[in-house]
UniProtKB/TrEMBL annotation, chain A:
This is Amino acid ABC transporter ATP-binding protein. PROSITE patterns: ABC_TRANSPORTER_1, ABC_TRANSPORTER_2. CDD domains: ABC_HisP_GlnQ. One of its GO terms (molecular function) is ATP hydrolysis activity. Keywords: Amino-acid transport, ATP-binding, Cell membrane, Membrane, Nucleotide-binding, Transport. GO terms for cellular component: plasma membrane. Belongs to the ABC transporter superfamily. It is found in: Cell inner membrane. It comes from the Bacteria. InterPro entries: AAA+_ATPase (IPR003593), ABC_ATPase_HisP-typ (IPR030679), ABC_transporter-like_ATP-bd (IPR003439), ABC_transporter-like_CS (IPR017871), MetN_ABC_transporter-like (IPR050086), P-loop_NTPase (IPR027417). Its main location: membrane.
TrEMBL record, chain B:
PANTHER family: BLR6398 PROTEIN, MEMBRANE COMPONENT OF AMINO ACID ABC TRANSPORTER. Keywords: Amino-acid transport, Cell membrane, Membrane, Transmembrane, Transmembrane helix, Transport. Belongs to the binding-protein-dependent transport system permease family. HisMQ subfamily. Residues 17-205 form the ABC transmembrane type-1 domain. GO terms for cellular component: ATP-binding cassette (ABC) transporter complex. GO terms for biological process: amino acid transport. The chain crosses the membrane at residues 20-43, 55-77, 83-102, 184-204. This is Amino acid ABC transporter permease. The keyword Cell membrane applies. One of its GO terms (molecular function) is transmembrane transporter activity. It holds the Pfam family BPD_transp_1.
Length: 242, 216
């Protein structure tokens, strides 16, 4: 059964038609890389999946339940969808530990001890156990992004959405974040990531979706698609990024 | 006619200063409370609530505080609500203070990255939880300096309460002037007392601003 399903999704900003009939079906455990030029609608697509943006036509379901931007719906959705942003969006006034513990405590109503145990385990997983009491500003970009991943994982999501999560990082810090993602992929986490890391998409990803002008232009098994693109647009795009 | 020594003048003025301070505090507490509620309303996605707040701000920022005080005092009594000068002064100063604080705080909250709201939403926090745990703690750091700075305007605004008969510093100054015919002496003292109330607050606000700019 599909975990995330988009059926003929259309999204407009005013009269700007940004998503033009997206069909996408993602099963649990898949690692889907969304690639495409800037402005092709990749972020908008992710943001529709977790209810940050309202779409105007079509349907999106998560685990069979319809996705809307209704506040209560979005909060229910947040229990199964985690999101990681390009610029981390950690809470700067809280320590790393507090960042990770916050949602489990006030949303899942876990006890403080339980939330702390979860937080420590998640930080361990991303290799930052010793940073529990540090403030985000003391960490490198790569470390901050790993905290953001730990924070999302603490809610035990079924799927993680990642929007260019290595794009704001210095090149030497990209690897440590991708390694965490790779580990998650191995453990069977469903990942939908907008990325420019073609090697990662090929080697770790199971599927590549190429977006162009608000449409899914071409998609398929990551290794096949990237070594043998069918459309001119994808060929051109790959020429540009490689 | 009673003779007023310098000591008498000063003693009377200082006594009246207590009422100025008390009125300022009451207006500030009332204004902050109302401004908090209005700020929360302004941040919701409910367009009607946001419009109401905007109208409130425009109404009370767009009319003189003196008129607001007149309306609260004389207007309400004409409508059959007996209100003391003290009550009318607090009420109108609360309107005034809150209308400005909402705008000041709006500026502070808008400096926080949108990503803070989105990250909270993605973690499943409700609107009020986001305000309480994410937005307010960060906004307070930014807002303290301009808020303290604005409190100076509140103190000066209390002087207007003298015209509806509330006996505070300015009113007592006027009364002493009528009794002594020494306007220069009396009003210099009055001004000096206002200055001594306001100047430390201005200094403190500047200090907070510097501290904040260094720490970020
Ligand atoms: N909040 C917004 N308001 C109006 N237009 C937007 C907004 N967000 C994105 N867009 C437009 O939608 C299109 C797709 O944007 P986006 O999904 O961010 O593309 P990508 O992530 O692929 O670079 C762009 O043309 C962008 O200008
Ligand atoms: Mg984008």
């Amino acid at each position: 059964m599909s975990l995330v399903n988009l059926h003929q999704v259309h999204k407009y900003y005013g009269d700007h038609h940004v998503l033009k009939g997206i069909d996408l079906d993602i099963k649990a455990g898949e690692v889907v890389s969304i690639i495409g030029r800037s402005g092709s609608g990749k972020s908008t697509l992710l943001r529709c999946i977790n209810g940050l943006e309202q779409y105007q036509k079509g349907g999106i379901t998560l685990d069979g339940k319809e996705v809307t931007t209704d506040d209560i719906q979005v909060r229910r959705l947040a229990l199964s969808v985690g999101m990681i942003f390009q610029n981390f969006n950690l809470f700067p006034h809280m320590t790393v530990g507090e960042n990770v513990m916050l949602a489990p405590t006030i949303v899942l109503k876990k006890s403080k001890a339980e939330a702390e145990a979860t937080a420590r385990a998640m930080l361990e997983k991303v290799g930052l156990a010793e940073k529990f009491d540090s403030f985000p500003e003391k960490l490198s970009g790569g470390q901050q992004q790993r905290v953001a991943i730990a924070r999302a994982l603490a809610m035990s999501p079924k799927v993680l959405l990642c929007d260019e999560i290595t794009s704001a990082l210095d090149p030497e810090l990209v690897g440590e974040v991708l390694k965490v993602l790779e580990q998650l992929a191995k453990e069977g986490m469903t990942l939908i990531l907008v990325t420019h890391e073609m090697n990662f998409a090929r080697d770790v990803g199971s599927r590549v979706v190429f977006m162009h002008q608000g449409k899914v232009w071409e998609q398929g098994d990551s290794k096949t698609l990237l070594s043998n693109p069918q459309t001119d647009e994808l060929k051109q795009f790959m020429g540009a990024v490689l | 006619m009673i003779e007023f020594s310098n000591y008498d003048i000063l003693r009377n003025l200082l006594f009246a200063t207590q009422w100025t301070i008390l009125l300022s505090l009451a207006a500030f507490v009332g204004g902050t409370t109302v401004a908090l509620a209005l700020t929360a309303m302004r941040l919701t996605r409910n367009a009607i609530m946001r419009t109401l707040v905007r109208m409130y701000v425009e109404l009370f920022q767009g009319t003189p505080l003196l008129m607001q005080m007149f309306l609260c005092f004389f207007g309400l009594s004409m409508l059959g609500y007996e209100i003391s000068a003290w009550g009318a002064a607090i009420l109108s100063l609360t309107f005034f203070t809150s209308a400005f604080l909402v705008e000041i705080w709006r500026g502070c909250i808008d400096t926080l990255p949108k990503g803070q709201w989105e990250a909270s939403r993605c973690l499943g926090l409700s609107f009020l939880q986001t305000l309480r745990f994410i937005i307010l703690p960060q906004a307070i750091r930014v807002a303290t300096a301009p808020t303290v700075g604005f409190s100076v305007q509140v103190i000066k605004g209390t002087a207007l309460a003298s015209v509806i008969g509330f006996v505070e510093l300015t009113k007592v100054g006027t009364m002493l002037n009528n009794a002594t015919f020494e306007p220069f002496k009396v009003f210099t003292l009055v001004a000096l007392i206002y200055f001594m109330l306001c100047y430390p607050l201005s200094l403190y606000s500047k200090h907070l601003e510097k501290k904040f700019n260094v720490s970020r």
